[in-house]
Every structure is written in structure tokens, then in C-alpha cells.
Amino acid sequence: MGEIKSTLDLIMERTKHLTLSDEEKKAFREAELKKLISGLIQQFLDGKLTPNDIPEAFSSLGEDTETQRRLIKEEILARLHPLEDNEPLYQLMEIVLGEDPAFFRCRCQSYREELAQLRMKREKEILADLAAQGISGSACVPNLNRDEKWKTLIEEVVQKFRGLR
Length: 165
Known about the structure:
Elements: H1 7-15, H2 22-45, H3 54-59, H4 66-79, H5 87-97, H6 102-132, H7 148-162
Helix pairs in contact: 2-4, 4-5, 6-7
């Protein structure tokens, strides 16, 4: 009677002649490194790593290469958000990359100011719409959390901040 082969055995037989190119190997290593970096950053943000733990944790990634520095910076920048507290990310930028985060602080602050102006403008628009419907008074307070136009404005500002627009 013939041997029963597992799915893995069948796959291994059919792919034994295939090899990865150098470019594919490099992409695979970079993807793995990116996962490790993302995990370390998340551990820091979750409070599982302290600022004192950071140098040792990142040194476990291997030698400090340009690719590694680029991936760390990309991951930190991808996590910046104009409406959130970014101080831990700025701290990482200083500790791991040795870069001054002042530019990014200013950029986030300017987007917060832009959103504050848009908020006041949108609240005035909502109050004007309510007044046109005969609803007015000191008890009228716009609920921007339920306003679809406001949600769209926030999304547009965040996309602009991320450089997507």
C-alpha cells in the first residue's frame, strides 16, 4: 500500500526546485524587520518598555543600518496623529534615532489649530441651520460627534496631515 503524504509533504515536493531571488530575500527580511520594529514601538506605547529599556530593545534588532533607521522613522511617523498625544513617539524619535522632534511637534500643533478653527466654523454653521428652522437659545449646543460633515472634515485634515492629499 502506498504511503499517505501530508499536505506539507506534497507542497515541499512540488516547490523544492523553487528558490527566492536576492530581491525577494531582501524584501522578506525587511518585512520581518518592520514587524519587529512595530512590535517594539507598540510595547513602548503600551508601557511594557520604559525609556531606559528602549536602547537595549532596539539593539536586539541587529546592527544599526540605514534600512533599520528608515523603517523605525516610517513606523513612528505613521503613528503620529494630530488629535492624539504624540509625546511617547517624540520620545522614541529622540532616543532611538537621535533626532529632534520639534518639526513634528509644530506640524501637529498647526493641524490642531486648523481643526479648532474648523470646529468653531462648523458649530456656527450648525447653529445657523438650527436658527433657520426656528430652533435657537442658550440650550442649543451642536453635537459635532454626530455630524457627518464634521467627521468628513476631520478625515480630510488627517489625510492632509498624513500627506495623502
